[in-house]
């Protein structure tokens, strides 16, 4: 009887519920007036957090001798960032990395001449992309290089020198001395965006050898620049000709 009574009460309550529907929609534009005075109490509450954030973002990492911009088929900035990722990925992964790759479209700013800060690196790499290490066969590695070379020669890589003709790779040589053999395995450090098929690289979705490294690409760059800064010498990056158009 108790179960039946509770069930009956539930039915009665459900039957008495009112139903609602949208009768009318209305919208209006709210303008933000920059001349309105800031709320002083809010500013006081935010002040310590802003000071801490400013101290972090304005912290100098290293000095470079001239402003750097990305460019195709290659630039000093492209090479510097790719080499930084190659070095830090190897340390974090704990194993040798053969090739590093950065998505050209993901590089959103250049680096200023003089002191380079943490904030500058956030401007260069604003996205929270994670480091992924894929193990590719030599055939897959060549497919990977060809894919990004075909994309307006936007190939930002470390650990490899590539010759390109009509947006197709004619030769690729690893700088660690290894030869690219179709059925051998090679480790490639890249962002999770690309590893997940971003930039049209859908063929990477089926790659079996994948290690997700808990390390932001941006943090890898920050750590590299900080380590370089500790040496006390300014960086003088130069494009080294790793991408050759024939």
Can you offer a commentary on this structure?
The chain has one domain (56-245): Alpha-Beta Complex (5'-nucleotidase,  domain 2), CATH 3.90.780. Strands 5-2-8-4-9 form a five-stranded mixed β-sheet. The chain has a three-stranded mixed β-sheet with strand order 7-6-10, covered by helices on one side. Helix content is 36%, strand content 22%. The N and C termini lie far apart (88 Å). Helix 3 crosses helix 7 (217-230). It has seven helices and ten strands. A hairpin with a 2-residue loop joins strand 6 (160-165) and strand 7 (168-174). The longest helix has 18 residues, at 40-57. The protein has helices at 2-16, 40-57, 76-93, 118-124, 138-150, 192-195, 217-230; strands at residues 60-64, 99-102, 114-117, 130-137, 156-158, 160-165, 168-174, 185-191, 209-216, 243-245. It has 246 residues and is α+β, with helices and mostly antiparallel strands.
Describe how the helices and strands are arranged.
Layout: H1 2-16, H2 40-57, E1 60-64, H3 76-93, E2 99-102, E3 114-117, H4 118-124, E4 130-137, H5 138-150, E5 156-158, E6 160-165, E7 168-174, E8 185-191, H6 192-195, E9 209-216, H7 217-230, E10 243-245
Parallel strand pairs: 2-8, 6-10
Antiparallel strand pairs: 1-3, 2-5, 4-8, 4-9, 6-7
Helix pairs in contact: 3-7
Oligomer classification? single chain
* Shape, per Cα inertia axes: globular
What's the number of extended β-strand segments? 10
Q: Helical residue percent?
A: 25-40%
Count of helical segments? Answer: 7
Low-confidence stretches: none
- The share of residues in extended strands comes to 15-25%
Q: CA-to-CA gap between the ends? A: 88 Å
CATH superfamily: 5'-Nucleotidase, C-terminal domain
**Class from helix and strand fractions:** alpha+beta
What number of domains?
A: 1
Strand order of the largest sheet: 5-2-8-4-9
What is the string of helix and strand elements? HHEHEEHEHEEEEHEHE
Radius of gyration, whole Å: 26 Å
